[in-house]
# Entry
Amino acid sequence: MPMSSPDQPSAASLRERVSSLPPDERPVLLSGASFWSTAAAPAAGLRPLVLSDGPHGIRRPRSDTEPGIGDALPATCFPAECLTACSWDTDLLARLGTATAREAAAAHVDVVLGPGLNIKRTPLCGRNFEYFSEDPLLAGALGAAWIRAVQAEGVAACPKHFAANNQEADRMRINAAVDERTLHEIYLRAFETVVRTAHPWTLMAAYNKVNGIHSAENAWLLETVLRGEWGFDGLVMSDWGAVTDRAAALDAGLDLEMPASGGLGLAELQAGLVAGTVNQQMVDSSVARLLQLADRTAAPAHNDADLDGHHQLAREAAAASMVLLKNEGGILPFSPDLRLAVVGELARTPRYQGAGSSQVTPTRVSVPLEVLSERTAAAVFAAGYRLDGTPDPELVTEAETAAAAADAVLFFLGLPEDKESEGFDRPDLALPENQLALLRAVTAANPWTVVVLFNGGAVETGWVEQVPAVLEAWLPGQAGGEALADVLLGDVNPSGKLAETFPRRIEDTPAFGNYPGEAGTVRYGEGVLVGYRWYDARAIEPAFAFGHGLSYTAFEYTGLALRLADTDMGPVLAVEATLTNTGSRAGAEVLQVYSGAPAGPAVRPPRELRAFRKVFLEPGASAPVALTVPLPDLARFDPASHRWITDAGTYRIDVGSSSRDIRLSGTIDLPGTEGGTAAPLTLDSTISEWLAHPLGRKLLGGTDRGADPGSGGDAAGGTGTGGMADALALMGSMPLRRLARFPGTPLTPDLLAGLEQVLRGAGPAGGESS
# Structure
């Protein structure tokens, strides 16, 4: 059941309150009253509701009538989702959600617009920093933890952007052409997880079209799937400016248009009511959801938030999520006694958050250079490059000199803000050439060079061979300087794992050739082979694999055990293993469970993430780790029958430290979906499909009946084509209906009609009705 207070008004009470409003006042409530608030109806107990951006911190603009980007009230700038996803830690995400909600309540914000749940289809998406992962299980688990924590504080969460909003290029108009299976298995799955398990009180419809219909006006998305299949009972709002036809959007299930539309939305609703394309019941249902949202968010504690404590939480979260990509020779952690050269303008002018609507006004910012200067014996700084990309030989010479005189170099490399942002995609994976040229010069002067990366999405990493160590810091939030020093100096043992694959080349990426689209449509031609699924299926070696991340200690995996178990939630696959810290430092490891399905009628990725757990261990300590995978999670979506199907057979289970670092493997035989996995038969099914199907073989008088070619019979007991099975196999790709058009065929119109009558009485998997 949705999370709500026990005394929440009933549906009948909501209807009564709606009916207390004059009918002509009700449509007024379904468009924003300003840029960040909704309209009020005091007679029905509806106050103005305040909405705020917030995937990584509250952005409450000083003015309610403007976007307010760059002019918001101070709030804690937590690490961006691209970094916190690498924690693989649902408990940490819950703590971040609690802190975010308390700051929202203190700022009198009712709805926090987050988390971002869109899948990272291409690393070029300019908004990837706002999203968790390329994998829907990881994104859904982290998002659900954050949502539950936010709403436990009486503040609404608003997962976004629903659905298939995977690029900024032409984002307001682009049509995402995605097949039904890919939608369900990849692009809808994280949303489904949070709706079913965290029960968000609101949800945001995206700008883009899905299969030709704008998301905000897409009844299949908003009614058939979201409300009908998943049971969502909250309010659906538009992304800001996503509505093109307010009447059509309401008809499709969109409750609230944001922001205020200058009366256009209201006029379209009123015209729809007159024309009959909108009815009063639709309006009343959406008003009731608005009232319900107001009730759900009515009593948060509007106390001052613990900003000092939240800064420390931001520091902890950033340090726990940074990913040690490379550490040859154990060069990290640094001793504070080293003579360290800190090179790169990004050390002095850090990029700690993404650009666009999520941009937070931080309460403070810890600068890496300042923190390192305080915590190391002798840190010398050289800017080395300009952030605008302009070459500066004088800065290069200064950096070379500093590097040559140091014991080691800490080089800050990354993407400036103008290279990735909401509103546009990146043209390529490249880092700025002036930074890479400087890196070449500095490593020539001192090969003991460690790179720190600031970026919101995966970048080209051909330069990694030049350096012994790389720490991926992503966009670490306002406490990033302190968190970096904690990891680099060994106070925190890095435990982050990549939530997205780093490709070697853009040409290796799944969407290459099917992105950014043409003539207003982008085709998702890679299907379900997104992220690591693509690299595994195509045997392409990535630069750094999904799930990869090193530690200052080492871990051993032993004792894999697999079994089926019955639980209160249904049958599960139980996976057990033992994890041992074999190194000399305390640390955390993320144990990852992947499955590989048996060969079947549909393309399946070689490996899919099914469960994970982050485990902290002292040196020499061991711990048993037990994880469960609900058997329905192993299913694939079958577009022919519009249902989830589990294929029977032998499944391979891999347990490892990344998608490419598998430590243990085993197999287990699992039962399939009850009733079989065959697609329903129709007269347009092929001869091969009929012969492969038990009912089809029976109706055609197949060999397993021992039918006689001359036995005859009616459609219910065989078509009289008994001996045809072998002959029909020669034309296996031909639909049965078409064979009936060939000269001399025994499939007469009467026989086809009889077959169709039997099929109409068959069960969902094609079995005969009783």
